[in-house]
Amino acid sequence: MSYQVAVLAGDGIGPEVMAEARKVLKAVEERFSLDIEYSEYDVGGAAIDHHGCPLPESTLKGCEEADAILFGSVGGPKWEHLPPNDQPERGALLPLRGHFELFCNMRPAKLHVGLEHMSPLRSDISAQGFDVLCVRELTGGIYFGKPKGRQGEGEQEEAFDTMRYSRREVRRIAKIAFEAARGRRKKVTSVDKANVLACSVLWREVVEEVAKEFPDVALEHIYIDNATMQLLRRPFDFDVMLCSNLFGDIISDEIAMLTGSMGLLSSVSLNSDGFGLYEPAGGSAPDIAGQGIANPIAQILSAALLLRHSLKEEAAAKAIEDAVAKALSDGYLTGELLPADQRDKAKSTREMGDYIAQAVREAN
Ligand code: NAD
Ligand code: IPM
Ligand code: MN
């Protein structure tokens, strides 16, 4: 069986980490005799530079024809002067999520056993480990709510965004969180701001309704501000964190860093037909782009998620995850995972990709 994957590497470290993910995919294809065809398309700043717009028709069409999308990252200082809707994030990534109605975003963050020291958590806390799945609503809330814009002039000028959620939108993402919890430690923590926001009051109501269909799963509600701090105090108490679009954005960077680096957190974004876009949770990292030092693991693990969710190649997905775990256990680390005085031992983006690809080939 032959699969089609649309590859959108994007900007900044996107192409650097994508090259390593492709390397690892090649190793896994050989090992599992998979037939995957890749088509590369410009997106984001790269597309602005080459085509004059962040999401060209040809890119969208290529994505529509593919079985799945492997996405790098978009954005950077070069395009920040453009009108907001013409910039890479709002002109390409959000429209892609909207176009395919990729409402379900899942970001799994686990503290690697033996590498607790990579975490910025206090050692008695990191010693207990943690394993959190952030389930983030991705096509609604304040990101997409209308009206959105600016009006007026001078000191009277104002800007506005609208946070808006329907019962249907909350219900479908809540169901996914509960289903995911069933396959894990059977606990859902729903993150909201129900002491202030009308959207969060509705969110809680619907989540309570959905919970009744899952009597075997424990449910707790937590305010977003408290959640960010409890994650630092007792991350091991969380299993599935169910979040609206904006709160999930915030929580996902926090859980990424608790594992040691933004460069470790992968993600899958699915629609109700199971079509998916796979991307690192982090961005184009302009501060380190072009230096060959970015951690490619989030991109590599996103490729593993693609194999699992879109191509249903579980063994191949697992082989990649095992190879990544091996690299980390072997102490094969990119610079941001190391203390400043040990950076001379840091591996480059390319060395990391090579090592993981080799581990895929050698595994039995
Ligand atoms: P960022 O995630 O790009 O970077 C935040 C910090 O994490 C930086 O210090 C960066 O060096 C580090 N980091 C991120 N990925 C890393 C990796 N793989 N290895 C090592 N370190 C890594 O967030 P930002 O700086 O706020 O945003 C930069 C640009 O990326 C902006 O234009 C933003 O809009 C965009 N962005 C894009 C996406 C996406 O395309 N999915 C996601 C987030 C941010
Ligand atoms: C993410 C990113 C995006 C988001 C930006 C780049 C639009 O931060 O995927 O987490 O806010 O969703
Ligand atoms: Mn984010």
TrEMBL record:
EC number: 1.1.1.85
Domain of life: Bacteria
Site (Important for catalysis): 143, 193
Family matches, as PROSITE patterns: IDH_IMDH (PS00470)
Reaction equation(s) it catalyzes: (2R,3S)-3-isopropylmalate + NAD(+) = 4-methyl-2-oxopentanoate + CO2 + NADH
The protein's annotated pathway: Amino-acid biosynthesis; L-leucine biosynthesis; L-leucine from 3-methyl-2-oxobutanoate: step 3/4
Residues that, per the record, bind NAD(+): 76-89, 283-295
Binding residue positions for Mg(2+): 225, 249, 253
A cellular component annotation (GO) from this entry: cytosol
Enzyme class, UniProt record, top EC level: oxidoreductase
Cellular localisation: Cytoplasm
Cofactor note: Binds 1 Mg(2+) or Mn(2+) ion per subunit.
One Gene Ontology term from the biological process aspect of the record: L-leucine biosynthetic process
InterPro entries: IsoCit/isopropylmalate_DH_CS (IPR019818), IsoPropMal-DH-like_dom (IPR024084), Isopropylmalate_DH (IPR004429)
Binding site residues for substrate: 97, 107, 136, 225
Pfam family, one: Iso_dh
Keywords (A to Z) from UniProt: Amino-acid biosynthesis, Branched-chain amino acid biosynthesis, Cytoplasm, Leucine biosynthesis, Magnesium, Manganese, Metal-binding, NAD, Oxidoreductase
Cofactor dependency: Mn(2+); Mg(2+)
GO molecular function: 3-isopropylmalate dehydrogenase activity; magnesium ion binding; NAD binding
Assembly mode: Homodimer.
Free-text function comment from the UniProt entry: Catalyzes the oxidation of 3-carboxy-2-hydroxy-4-methylpentanoate (3-isopropylmalate) to 3-carboxy-4-methyl-2-oxopentanoate. The product decarboxylates to 4-methyl-2 oxopentanoate.
Protein name, UniProt field: 3-isopropylmalate dehydrogenase
Species whose genome carries this gene: Shewanella loihica (strain ATCC BAA-1088 / PV-4)
Lineage: Bacteria, Pseudomonadati, Pseudomonadota, Gammaproteobacteria, Alteromonadales
Gene name for this UniProt entry: leuB
